[in-house]
C-alpha cells in the first residue's frame, strides 16, 4: 500500500521507522534484529536509506595515486525486498540524485516496480566527502525536484526512450524531505519553503522532516507550510538522543538546534546510559506533543537503537 493511502485511511496516528543498510560484509540478520522488537507497534512502512559511493585515493607503486570507489552500505533494494518477503510491511526506498544518471535512475525505478514496491522518498543526497559541494552525475539530476519530475513522468508512462510502445506506467507514491530548521544550504526558511512547495506542486504527495528536538519549531514549520498552501501530510522525523557526543555532532551534521532544556538534562547525566534515558524521556514528551498537535504519523530514525525506540513507542502508542 502507498504511504499516502496509509495516512488517508488511518483512524489513529501511524508508527513508522527508518533503518540503515548494514556495513558492507555484514549480514541482513542485523536488520531483522532491529525490526523485530518494534513489530508489536505495527509499523505502517519502513524507510531504507541509500548510501552513495565515495572515493578515496590509494598510493600505488611509483608514488602514483589511484582513485578507488567505495560503498560502505550497499543493499537498499535487496533489503526492501527482504522486508516485504519476511514481514509483509510496506517499504520506502530512498532514491537520490547523487551518483545516478537519469538512465540509471529510470532502471532503478523499474527494478523497484518489478518488486512490487510503490513508494519512494526522492532526495538530492549529500555531497561526497571529497567534494566541497554537491556535484550531480553527468546526465543526472542536480535537484530533488528534477527527480520528482522524472518519477511523475514514469507514473504517466513516459520513459526516457520516447519510441517505446505499449508501456506500463509506474505507480509510485512520492515523498520528499522537509527541514523545520531549514536546509543548511538555504539562505533562510522562506526560501527553503518555496523550494519545498515546488516539489509538492511537481507531484510529491507527502513530506517527511529532518530530525528536530524542538517541537515548537516543527509546529511553526507546519503552520508556515500551510500558509504557503503546502497542504500535503507532513510527517515529523524523530531521533532519540543516545550519547553525549550527539549533542555537538548532530547540530553540525544536520543544521539543527538542541534546546537548552534538553542540554541541561544531559548535563546532569554521568554516563551515556543515563543520557539515553534522558533522550528517551525527551522523545516521549515530543511524541505526545506532536500527537496532540495532530501529526498523522511519527517516524523514528532508529539508527540501530531499537531498544530506545521501543521504550518511546510503548509510552505513546
In short:
The protein has 317 residues and is an alpha/beta fold.
Explain what you see:
The protein is of the alpha/beta class. The chain has a single domain, classed as TIM Barrel, CATH 3.20.20. It is 40% helix and 18% strand. It has an 8-stranded parallel beta barrel with strand order 1-2-5-6-7-8-9-10, surrounded by 5 helices. A two-stranded antiparallel ribbon has the order 3-4. Helix 4 packs across helix 5, helix 5 packs parallel to helix 6 and helix 10 runs parallel beside helix 11. The longest helix is centred in the C-terminal third of the chain and has 22 residues. The chain starts with a helix and ends with a helix.
Percentage beta strand: 15-25%
CATH architecture assignment name: Alpha-Beta Barrel
Low-confidence stretches: none
Q: At the third CATH level, what is the topology name?
A: TIM Barrel
Integer-rounded radius of gyration? 20 Å
Helix and strand succession? Answer: HEHEEEHEHEHEHEHEHHHEH
- Residue share in helix: 40-55%
Number of helices: 11
Helix-and-strand structural type: alpha/beta
The main β sheet shows up as: 8 strands, parallel, barrel
Amino acid at each position: 500500500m502507498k504511504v499516502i493511502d496509509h495516512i488517508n485511511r488511518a483512524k489513529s496516528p501511524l508508527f513508522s521507522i527508518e533503518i540503515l543498510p548494514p556495513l558492507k560484509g555484514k549480514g541482513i540478520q542485523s536488520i531483522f534484529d532491529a525490526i523485530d522488537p518494534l513489530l508489536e507497534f505495527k509499523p505502517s512502512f519502513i524507510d531504507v536509506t541509500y548510501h552513495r559511493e565515495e572515493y578515496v585515493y590509494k598510493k600505488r607503486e611509483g608514488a602514483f595515486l589511484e582513485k578507488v570507489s567505495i560503498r560502505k552500505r550497499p543493499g537498499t533494494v535487496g533489503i526492501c525486498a527482504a522486508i516485504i518477503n519476511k514481514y509483509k510491511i510496506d517499504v520506502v526506498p530512498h532514491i537520490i540524485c547523487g551518483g545516478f544518471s537519469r538512465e540509471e535512475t529510470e532502471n532503478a525505478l523499474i527494478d523497484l516496480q518489478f518488486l512490487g514496491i510503490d513508494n519512494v522518498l526522492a532526495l538530492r543526497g549529500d555531497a561526497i566527502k571529497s567534494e566541497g559541494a554537491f556535484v550531480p552525475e553527468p546526465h543526472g539530476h542536480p535537484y530533488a525536484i528534477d527527480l520528482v519530475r522524472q518519477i511523475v513522468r514514469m507514473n504517466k508512462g513516459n520513459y526516457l526512450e520516447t519510441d517505446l510502445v505499449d508501456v506500463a506506467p509506474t505507480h509510485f507514491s512520492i515523498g520528499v524531505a522537509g527541514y523545520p530548521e531549514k536546509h543548511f544550504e538555504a539562505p533562510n526558511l522562506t526560501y527553503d519553503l518555496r523550494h519545498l512547495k515546488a516539489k509538492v506542486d511537481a507531484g510529491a504527495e507527502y513530506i517527511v522532516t529532518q530530525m528536530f528536538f524542538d517541537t515548537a519549531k516543527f509546529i511553526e514549520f507546519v503552520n508556515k507550510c500551510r500558509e504557503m498552501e503546502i497542504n500535503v501530510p507532513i510527517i515529523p522525523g524523530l531521533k532519540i538522543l543516545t550519547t553525549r557526543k550527539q549533542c555537538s555532532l548532530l547540530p553540525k551534521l544536520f543544521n539543527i538546534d538542541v534546546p537548552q532544556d534538553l542540554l541541561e538534562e544531559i548535563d546532569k547525566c554521568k554516563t551515556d546510559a543515563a543520557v539515553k534515558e534522558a533522550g528517551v524521556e525527551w522523545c516521549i514528551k515530543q511524541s505526545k506533543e506532536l500527537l496532540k498537535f495532530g501529526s498523522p504519523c511519527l517516524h523514528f530514525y532508529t539508527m540501530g537503537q531499537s531498544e530506545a525506540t521501543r521504550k518511546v513507542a510503548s509510552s505513546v502508542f
